[in-house]
Write a structure and sequence with these properties.
alpha+beta; two-stranded antiparallel ribbon; 2 helices
Length: 72
């Protein structure tokens, strides 16, 4: 919900925990915000921290991580 979590809060959270943050897509409607980022982590611990920090912004935040290298 845009009134509960802003793009600014998401970006600030990602910047605290990621080595690199690049916004790829952003959609906002009256009742939802969807954003896709290309992010770089130094290690798995950073991934866990960013997931927890994003969910602490609001309990409705959903997080999905995908490997940008694909499957071999």
């Amino acid at each position: 919900n845009p009134s509960k979590v802003s793009l600014q809060e998401i970006v600030e959270t990602l910047n605290r925990h990621c080595s690199q943050v690049n916004l790829r897509r952003f959609d906002e409607s009256g009742d939802s915000v969807e954003a896709s980022f290309l992010v770089v982590f130094k290690d798995f611990d950073q991934l866990a921290k960013v997931k927890n920090s994003l969910q602490e912004l609001n309990e409705s935040v959903r997080v999905s991580f995908l490997d940008n290298k694909g499957f071999v």
